Automatic annotation (TrEMBL):
<keyword id="KW-0503">Monooxygenase</keyword>
<comment type="similarity">
    <text>Belongs to the NtaA/SnaA/DszA monooxygenase family.</text>
</comment>
<keyword id="KW-0288">FMN</keyword>
<dbReference type="Pfam" id="PF00296">
    <property type="entry name" value="Bac_luciferase"/>
</dbReference>
<dbReference type="GO" id="GO:0004497">
    <property type="term" value="F:monooxygenase activity"/>
</dbReference>
<dbReference type="InterPro" id="IPR051260">
    <property type="entry name" value="Diverse_substr_monoxygenases"/>
</dbReference>
<dbReference type="InterPro" id="IPR036661">
    <property type="entry name" value="Luciferase-like_sf"/>
</dbReference>
<dbReference type="InterPro" id="IPR011251">
    <property type="entry name" value="Luciferase-like_dom"/>
</dbReference>
<keyword id="KW-0560">Oxidoreductase</keyword>
<keyword id="KW-0285">Flavoprotein</keyword>
<dbReference type="InterPro" id="IPR016215">
    <property type="entry name" value="NTA_MOA"/>
</dbReference>
<protein>
    <submittedName>
        <fullName>NtaA/DmoA family FMN-dependent monooxygenase</fullName>
        <ecNumber>1.14.-.-</ecNumber>
    </submittedName>
</protein>
<feature type="domain" description="Luciferase-like">
    <location>
        <begin position="38"/>
        <end position="399"/>
    </location>
</feature>
């Protein structure tokens, strides 16, 4: 194993996804222990952030897209909660004010923003939070988003990534323009700022141009670290050049290791150290005191689905395992002859797990309840089961940490109270924050101004 993939002397890093306030399962807003108005309840986001801070979670993480944003990229929220919270910048300013340590990484499009506005708002929030902000710089791949910003269709991948490089360069140039020693505020001399140390950006790219300067000094971490999500070759280049964190979605340890290696190599190609780029693998869970208790919770979520939606899931599972489940009793294990016929769909990386569970004798409904169709690997079980999964991946060198999407609000509390102590006891998770800024939490260096290419 490449030494930079070796985690034996490292501790895992954790991000907690806020999703839309309810958790990673879009039916969980209906659970008896959920606050059904969490989506619009700022007190609730603050409370979750504080709970996460008690568990020393390195950072909150907010996925986002500037469009209607229904679950799974759809636009129907008639029964399922939205996939994203309220506008992240505004929402996080309240969270920042109510917390002290936890980092806050939020997603902002490199295609549907302007550098000056974005640089100003991000640096303001980084100032407000005393250096705890991170920017997940994504190109926005959903077609419908384009029409929220005019009549032009979504630019192709090449152009979007050209724009992404330019956007980050322009934003970082604006950030670095107000030199660290330019903020004087000397009452005796009457000098507020040293104008000789404040440089306009004069940034001239193909897609973005900006001339002026930003009147905001350096924050305690200099400027927010960049995160990235999106596994195309262009995405990997962007991550290698700029990212301190990458939100990834591997489904197996082997897949994760290969991707982590690719990311580290990309960073090395840009003259950076492999440790400067941290991969956060998406991970979901439902916790109970026993497997049966956790499973009952998952069944409840499935039962909230409409008949059509559930049938859609059964159809999907049929395709994943190559067996038509349509006429079978979904509450009973498959007859042995059909179990033997099950083979994973070659194009769906989640399929091997679905086949494995079918062959263990689980009914199709139980297999679905185990989250085989979810957008990340899922553990349904006890706090120990959740910790075991994380330990196994981490010790195998598959990831630097996890981007956690608990099933529900209760899942956040359960994770902090029941899983965190196990991880700490096993010596694979920190017992306190390393410092005060997000960069310190992540173990990435202070940075000011545009990332240099070596
Ligand atoms: C784990 C993961 C999380 C993502 N989160 C977001 C997000 O919150 N908002 C968004 O617009 N795109 C998100 N994306 C999409 C990517 O930014 C990108 O637009 C998409 O994957 C297509 O780009 P690619 O060609 O690099 O794969 C995410 C992608 C991955 C893999």
């Amino acid at each position: 194993m490449k030494d930079y993939l070796d985690n034996s002397n490292k501790k895992m890093k954790l991000a907690l996804q806020l999703v839309s306030g309810y958790g990673g399962e879009f039916q969980s807003w209906r659970l008896p222990d959920s606050n059904e108005r969490a989506y619009t309840d700022i007190d609730f986001y603050v409370e979750m952030a504080k709970t996460a801070e008690k568990g020393k979670i390195h950072t909150l993480f907010i996925a986002d897209t500037p469009s209607f944003g229904g679950a799974g990229g759809g636009t129907d929220i008639s029964t399922r909660s939205p996939a994203f919270p309220l506008e992240p910048m505004v929402m996080l300013s309240a969270v920042a004010y109510a917390t002290q340590k936890i980092g806050m990484v939020a997603t902002f499009s490199t295609t549907y923003n302007l550098p000056y506005n974005l640089a100003r708002q991000l640096k303001t929030l980084d100032t407000l939070s005393k250096g705890r902000l991170g920017w997940n710089a994504v190109t926005t791949g959903t077609r419908e988003t384009a029409y929220n910003f005019g009549d032009a269709p979504l630019p192709n991948t090449t152009i979007r990534y050209e724009m992404a490089h330019e956007m980050i360069e322009a934003v970082q140039t604006l950030w670095g323009g107000f030199s660290e020693n330019a903020y004087i505020t000397d009452k005796t001399t009457g000098i507020f700022a040293d104008m000789s140390k404040i440089k306009p950006a004069f940034y001239k790219g193909k897609h973005y141009q900006v001339k002026g300067a930003l009147p905001i000094p350096a924050t305690p971490q200099g400027q927010p670290p960049i995160f990235q999500a999106g596994p195309s070759p262009e995405g990997i280049e962007l991550a290698g050049r700029f990212a301190s964190g990458v939100y990834a979605n591997p489904f197996t340890i082997d897949e994760a290791k290969a991707y982590r290696n690719i990311l580290k190599q990309s960073a090395i190609r840009y003259g950076r150290n492999a440790n400067e780029i941290n991969m956060f693998s998406g991970f979901m869970f439902t916790i109970g005191d026993t497997y049966e208790e956790a499973l009952a919770r998952r069944y409840k979520l499935l039962d909230f689905m409409s008949k059509e939606e559930f049938e859609g899931q059964i159809r999907y599972l049929s395709a994943m395992i190559g067996v038509n489940l349509h006429k079978l009793d979904v509450n009973k294990p498959l007859p042995e002859s059909l179990q033997n016929q099950a083979i994973p769909h070659p194009q769906d990386p989640r399929s091997p797990r679905a086949v494995e569970l079918i062959k263990q004798g689980m009914s199709p409904k139980e297999v679905l309840a185990n989250g085989v169709i979810n957008y990340h690997p899922v553990v349904v079980g006890t706090p120990k089961d959740v910790a075991d999964f994380m330990e196994k991946w981490f010790k195998a060198g598959a990831t630097d940490g996890f981007s956690l999407a608990p099933d529900s609000q209760k899942g956040v509390k359960d994770f902090v109270e029941k899983v965190v102590p196990i991880l700490q006891e096993r010596g694979i998770y920190h017992t306190d924050y390393e410092g005060s800024t997000l960069r310190e939490h992540l173990g990435v260096a202070y940075q000011y101004s545009v990332t240099k290419i070596h």
